[in-house]
């Protein structure tokens, strides 16, 4: 079991992005129906589960990165769980804009896999196509911006001791790696002095193996464009992953301990509940306003996030059914369509102890104890419940 966080080095709680990667203008040729449809891309799961980026350009230039260290015991020996991300000081840390570029590149690789049956050794792309995928105008300024974000991805280093997981949920020990191992652009020269004729990136081995084994999850980047703040977009990526895992267990909500969430977001961790609520207020308000989650409830440090119709409509329903639902919703009153989608999702079976077991498995007895006592459950009983659910 992972226990109390012993050390955390994280960023600030700023919530703006100096260089927005998603422009709010929309080409007039697009029809309203197309705008209503989710735009799903594939992302490797660890980029959603672990802290990687900071929130804005100012923080990117000053941040030394993220570091989480936890201590546990296994077979009588102390075990260290570690996740560390650090930048090249010359280019700085990745921002949420950088992460969205990474999502687009991963989705390109998945499209090639569908066509060719395997992932390319190196992913070739045009900057114009990449601009289109992240809703940039394909001009010189935005192409230069994309190159800069890719350079940041290449130069940002990661280290894992049990944190970065593979398809089988095994925690890997990786001394150092990057999400993008190398990249080159038209006009550069290769190691032999020959000009590069196509832009390309190469995913580092741990990332590539997870892509090939399909340890990936879909995100709705059309919905991300509706979220105005970087902290809101960051919270969306974390909740998308957590709600997906909860839904696989039959739940449409997840209980999250604030300190754990802030740690995984890579933002400042506060020691007063009112400060924590203030920090997340903007992000939560945006997700509630866009009907992705219901208004969350706080039980001291534990936050319950419950999925709303945008999550169900944008991420749960099969793509084909989702398109039919959009067309139907445009012909009828939208609230009625939303209620129909919620009624379908609410038929899932319930396991009342699963959220508590997930909390204990990920964060240990100290954080799970208050809720366990309300259920009249001892730590030994809770450990047995976790084992029965495959969460040991």
Write the layout of secondary structure elements.
Blueprint: E1 5-9, H1 32-36, E2 40-44, H2 46-49, H3 57-62, E3 66-74, E4 77-86, H4 96-116, E5 123-125, H5 127-133, H6 140-155, E6 157-165, E7 171-177, E8 180-184, E9 199-203, H7 205-212, E10 216-220, H8 221-224, H9 230-248, E11 253-257, H10 258-265, H11 273-289, E12 297-299, E13 302-306, H12 309-316, H13 319-331, H14 334-345, H15 354-363, H16 365-374, H17 379-388
Antiparallel strand pairs: 1-3, 2-10, 3-4, 4-6, 5-9, 6-7, 8-9, 11-13, 12-13
Structure description:
By secondary structure, this protein is of the alpha+beta class. It has three domains: 1-29 and 36-219, no CATH class; 226-350, Arc Repressor Mutant, subunit A (Orthogonal Bundle), CATH 1.10.10; 355-388, no CATH class. It has helices at 32-36, 46-49, 57-62, 96-116, 127-133, 140-155, 205-212, 221-224, 230-248, 258-265, 273-289, 309-316, 319-331, 334-345, 354-363, 365-374, 379-388, and strands at 5-9, 40-44, 66-74, 77-86, 123-125, 157-165, 171-177, 180-184, 199-203, 216-220, 253-257, 297-299, 302-306. The strands form four sheets. Strands 1-3-4-6-7 form a five-stranded antiparallel sheet. A three-stranded antiparallel sheet has the order 5-9-8. A three-stranded antiparallel sheet has the order 11-13-12. Strand 12 and strand 13 form a beta hairpin. Helix 4 packs across helix 6 (140-155), helix 9 crosses helix 11 and helix 15 (354-363) crosses helix 17. The chain is globular, with a radius of gyration of 21 Å.
